[in-house]
Amino acid sequence: LSFAVIRSTTLLLPAWRWACVASHLKEKLMPHDVATRWNSTYDMLVFALQYQAPIDHITSDKNLKQAKKYELDDDEWKIVADLITQYKKATLFFSQDSASIAAVIPAMDKLDSKLNQQTKDSYHPAVISAMQLAKNKMDCYWKITDLSNVYRIAMG
């Protein structure tokens, strides 16, 4: 949606600005999800929740057909909220400059336990699926850290 709004200077961009004003929100553009900045997804999702009203407005407007494909239903908005809740602390922790190997390992343990599907929290099935994929990816990293001398010294 972010790129669609920016590229449509005659239709979507004015509609976006109007929707922001109508929702009593500052006229800001949605941040981009950048593959090389892992917390950019988090920033984009936080923005999307804060600007849910204007997003819903322009994506449901029948006159703005190019925005329709970005429309989210209530379940999908719940997924956005679940993802933000689940990963906020990890994102902030891993983004700080003072994260050391001795601090990262326990944080990864905690994140790994949160990714466990036997959690008591009820999440949307899509979030549970994403959590399982993230857990599988972390398991690959765990196998590598077990072989690392730095890891063994830090945990020593």
Note the main attributes of this structure:
single chain, 8 helices, elongated, 0% strand, mainly alpha, 156 residues
- Principal-axes geometry comes out as elongated
| Unreliable stretches covering 5 or more consecutive residues | none
Structural class, by secondary structure, is mainly alpha
Share in β-strands: under 5%
Q: How many helices does DSSP assign?
A: 8
Rg from C-alpha positions?
19 Å
Instruction: Please provide the ordered H/E string of secondary-structure elements.
Output: HHHHHHHH
Q: Please tally the β strands and state the result.
A: 0
Description of the molecule:
- By secondary structure, this protein is mostly helical.
- Helix content is 65%, strand content 0%.
- It is built from 8 helices and no strands.
- It has helices at residues 2-7, 12-22, 40-50, 52-60, 74-95, 101-114, 125-146, 149-155.
- Helix 3 (40-50) packs across helix 5.
- The longest helix is centred in the middle third of the chain and has 22 residues, at 74-95.
- The radius of gyration is 19 Å and the shape is elongated.
- The relative contact order is 0.09.
- The model has no long low-confidence stretch (mean pLDDT 79).
